[in-house]
């Protein structure tokens, strides 16, 4: 059993959490605006895509953090 220094992975995880939170907020805002037809569909699709990318990065950071202990 050994441990890899988790500090860089913890920092990456924290950044991924912040990015995901921002993407969630921006997507929620875009959802409201698209319902009112205040933004183009392309912008809404972009926000949804950014949210999926942020969620994937968060999942990867969580997995990396789990792998610091073997």
The percent range for helix content is over 70%
Number of helices: 2
Spell out the helices and strands N to C. Answer: HH
* DSSP strand count: 0
Q: Could you say which overall geometry the principal axes of the C-alpha atoms support?
A: rod-shaped
Low-confidence stretches: none
Distance between the termini: 5 Å
Provide structural commentary.
By secondary structure, the protein is an all-alpha fold. The protein is built from two helices and no strands. The protein has helices spanning 7-35, 41-66. Helix 1 (7-35) packs antiparallel against helix 2. The termini are close together. The model has no long low-confidence stretch (mean pLDDT 97).
Could you list some keywords that capture this structure?
0% strand, mainly alpha, 70 residues
Short description:
The chain is mainly alpha-helical and 70 residues long. 79% of the residues lie in helices and 0% in strands.
Fold topology:
Layout: H1 7-35, H2 41-66
Helix pairs in contact: 1-2
